[in-house]
């Protein structure tokens, strides 16, 4: 029993949650609003980073403060993949402008990856649905950023003249929404992070500077 407790103490809990539209990224209750507490009955875990209420998709939560800081800290440059539905159809020149970095009011965005994609297959319907205007088509962009300033994606697309209608964060590092419907979460157990490790290594160490990852040892949980 003592050995089992010691083994568990060396593991961190990591939850992958598909945050629905409108849900606040906090456990503290807010009158008339849904929060993480409405979906995740797991004590002692906290979000590693944020996701705006009007955005959807992947949110990571953990009980390891060091791990939490390293996932959220842009110095570790975990790539974040966003699927963005915009009003209008961006040109190649516009996409290159996004990729090169755009000057916003308080900073210039760092170079990123930007490309036009087909509407993602199998993506759930948003509730409430986005607003459509008959005279203006919409398009989907894939953006991969290694930073995450306040409302950055929305500000970037607005700056180049294509307002964001829907924003879904699909992946952080090698963790993705695969198999998670809105409101569902999955739990992994990974090695606890040393407090002063110079960097953390993601699920695919050769490609990703992120969180050290050991595949869960028969310790994986999913919401119903």
Question: How would you describe what is shown here?
Answer:
- The chain is α+β, with helices and mostly antiparallel strands.
- It has two domains: 2-76 and 177-222, 2-Layer Sandwich (Alpha-Beta Plaits); 83-172, Alpha-Beta Plaits (2-Layer Sandwich).
- It has four helices and ten strands, in the order αβββαβαββαββββ.
- Strands 1, 2, 3, 4, 5, 6, 7, 8, 9 and 10 form a ten-stranded mixed sheet that branches.
- The chain is globular.
- The relative contact order is 0.22.
- Residues 1-7 and 196-220 have low confidence and may be disordered.
Short description:
The chain is built from four helices and ten strands, in the order H-E-E-E-H-E-H-E-E-H-E-E-E-E.
Largest beta-sheet details: 10 strands, mixed
Second-tier CATH architecture of the largest domain: 2-Layer Sandwich
| Overall body shape | globular
What is the class of the largest domain in the CATH system?
Alpha Beta
Count the strands? 10
Q: What is the chain-wise order of helices and strands?
A: HEEEHEHEEHEEEE
Structural class: alpha+beta
The CATH topology of the largest domain? Alpha-Beta Plaits
**Mean of all residue-level pLDDT scores:** 84
The poorly predicted ranges are 1-7, 196-220
Q: What is the terminal separation in angstroms?
A: 30 Å
Quaternary organisation of the protein chains: single chain
CATH homologous superfamily grouping of the largest domain:
Pseudouridine synthase I, catalytic domain, N-terminal subdomain
- Helical content class: 10-25%
Number of helices in the DSSP assignment: 4
Taken together, the total number of domains comes to: 2
Radius of gyration: 18 Å
Bin the strand percentage.
25-35%
